[in-house]
Amino acid sequence: RASRIKRRDLITGLRARTIIARPNFDKIISQQKEAHPGHYIGVFYCGPPMLADMIKRSCRKHSDAVTGTKFIFKKEFSEF
Asked: Average pLDDT over the chain, rounded to whole?
């Protein structure tokens, strides 16, 4: 019997595929809200300020006083 073909990402060689695009942070944060209702969820970001503002808005949007889910957003920006 032929051995299994291991699916690997062509760019990284890892099993997880590489997505070439900006992630849908609103969707990701929404999914975390559903997966962890009533929890504090830390979101740490390091990168350009413009993208940080978008993620911070999404954290505020999905924090929910009724369920107790709260996103705590922290950012860092360093120029290398």
From this structure: 88
| Cα(51)–Cα(42) distance, integer angstroms | 17
Are 50 and 20 contacting, i.e. CB atoms less than 8 angstroms apart? no
DSSP-derived secondary structure letter, 45:
E
Encoded tokens for 29: 């944060």
The reported pLDDT for the residue numbered 80 is: 61
What is the tally of helices (H) and strands (E) in the chain? 2, 2
Q: What average pLDDT does the segment 9-28 reach?
A: 86
